[in-house]
Amino acid sequence: MSIIAQYVMNGAMLGMMYALVAVGFTLFFGVLDVIQFAHGDVLAAGAFAALAVWLGLTRLGVASPALLLALVVVAATVATALLGAAVARFLVLPLKGAPQLNVLLVTLMMGTVLRESIRLFYPGGSQPQLFPALLPTSSVALGEFNLRIDNVILLAAGTVLIAGTSLLVTRTRLGLAIRAVAQDEETARTMGVDFRRIVLLTFALGSALAAFAGVMDGLYYNEIFFGMGLLLGVIGFAAAIIGGLGNLYGAILGGFFFAALQTIGAVALPFASAYKDVFAFGVVIALMALRPKGLIGERTSERV
Amino acid sequence: MRKGLLAAAAVLAVSLALREDDFALLLLTRVLIVILACLGLNVQFGYAGVVNFAGATFFGVGGYTAAVLARSTAVPHLFILLIGGAAAALAGTILVVPVLRTRGHYAALVTIAFALLFRTFFEVNDALGGPQGLKLPELRIGPVHFNDAIEIGSFFASFYLKYIVLSLLLAALGFAFVLRLERSFIGVALDCIRLDEIAAASFGVDVARWKIVAFTLGNFLIGLAGALSAFMVGFIAPDNYSFGESLIFVSILLLGGLGNPWGLSLASAVVLLLPEKLQVIAEYRFLLFAAVVILILLFRPAGLLPRPLRRLT
Question: What distance in Å separates the CA atoms of residue B66 and residue A237, rounded to the nearest whole number?
């Protein structure tokens, strides 16, 4: 029983991270019909920015855990939001009108630039870096299962963030503008929507969500690594596609679906659990063969 | 044709001049092998417009097939090279259905997922040596032992000269084949499909059939190159077939000019030789190539040597 609870908890944590990344992909696709493939590496850059700020603050003698946590999260968010907006401004928008594949390639290469920059220029960046435990590490015993407080906090914060994003997109003026651009750029422009500003804001918003996923990853595994963004990016991309690109709820669903696949792969498969990623990606490929436009089709769904 | 023979003769002359320099010859062989692999990718990507971000994976399937067969069977090595190509083509058939049914981003995801899937598979499969990889025996074709130096009277040459001759031969055959393919009705059909699938279909081009042909042919060439590379290096490990390597293949194609075999040959030489000549930048090569490809895509999307317009005369 406690083992099952443990796996469910693991799966939920993974699913939350994947969902946060996938929501970014789906927001970008919504406004510009492009895949921003550097997203995963923007996430890694955010996690490293968080670590650098933590190191700096502890050196300065800031000891209050709450203040540290807040500053670290803010630093990561600001770093990724700026990075995401810069990618949109200098790489994605200039290629508007070029074949979609070129945007995918340019951002893939940008991801490589970011990844390699972390590896080469962050002190000791080629090795995994220890990430500080900024949350209380105590746990509550529920029968035989130890519920870790920090995991609960992370899950709750992730839920709040996703709900907040959803509210922002559906209930605010900014969200209305984002949806307008997603539906029809030309008409949105004639209605007075500042297209460039909305695109940049959307990229900043999506990337800021990735920052949280990056910090969450660091706090959960106590370790970050320059290549962490590649796998998270591909998984987030897969999750967004399974959910139908451009569909916010589909992306969240896709994130948890992929985490469930990995967990099932690790638990239920008769052979070694080392094959869990092989299994998960195999299912994704099979799904693409069966439903080429994702579980919730792109065309029939409302875009963001 | 004449240009091709001249280029081949030039490569031979250079390698004869450098015949005692192991390292230079090794690099030259690697360039030729990468050219062969990129020719395959060019058929898929440049002609048919079928994206493939798993180039290094098919390269690896060829390499691992060669390793397993050469270690545990007595199949003649020349056949093993061909079987390596066939195995990559066969592995590609797993992807045929999803690649045919999807387009754009979705097709890209399928091949990326495949690349990560196989990378993990190579790494965790103990029968294939796990992360440590496998060693290969010496390549032998007929009476020729490829790892013995050449000594005929006073003529001495590094054993890599034999690999150069073999890889030059295969690369030249692949080159001639790809050029011929482009000139044939198949090439025209592939161009139509890349430019407008719906229009091609309405003019009676069997889109699915030619996409499968291009994908399979391409994977065969990539797998063949992978098998040859595995023999030459004498050792294979999952690290050589990472997603980053797949991206390097795609970069070479874009750098050279999509659809132009001459362009990709030039780009292969630049991408492989430059970091070795300038040792300072070797560490930064992934970073630099990625940055260069970004600049190319932004400012010269057709590549260094853009593909010339087809003249149907």
Answer: 34
pLDDT, tens digit, 9 for 90 and up, residues A174-230: 999 999 988 888 899 999 899 999 999 999 999 999 999 999 999 999 999 898 888
On average, the pLDDT of chain A sits at 87
Cα nearest neighbour of A242 on chain B = B106
* ipTM greater than 0.85: no
In 3D space, the residue among A34, A231, A141, A248 whose CA is nearest the CA of residue B112 turns out to be A231
B284 closest CB neighbour out of A98, A120, A237 = A120
| Number of structural domains in chain A | 1
pLDDT of residue B222: 97
- Take residue B195 and report the two structure tokens written for it: 């430019």
Which residues of B make CB contacts under 8 Å with A?
Answer: 51, 94-95, 97-98, 101-106, 108-110, 112-114, 116-117, 120-121, 124, 243-244, 247, 250-251, 254, 283-284, 286-287, 289-291, 293-294, 297-298, 301
CA distance B30 to B167: 9
A272:B124 CB<8 A: yes
Return the closest-CA partner of residue A93 out of A241, A232, A202: A202
Joined tokens for residue A110: 């940008």
Query: Does A300 fall in a domain?
Result: no
B294 to chain A: nearest residue by CA? A106
The answer to the question of residue A304 being in a domain is: no
- CATH code at position A240: 1.10.3470
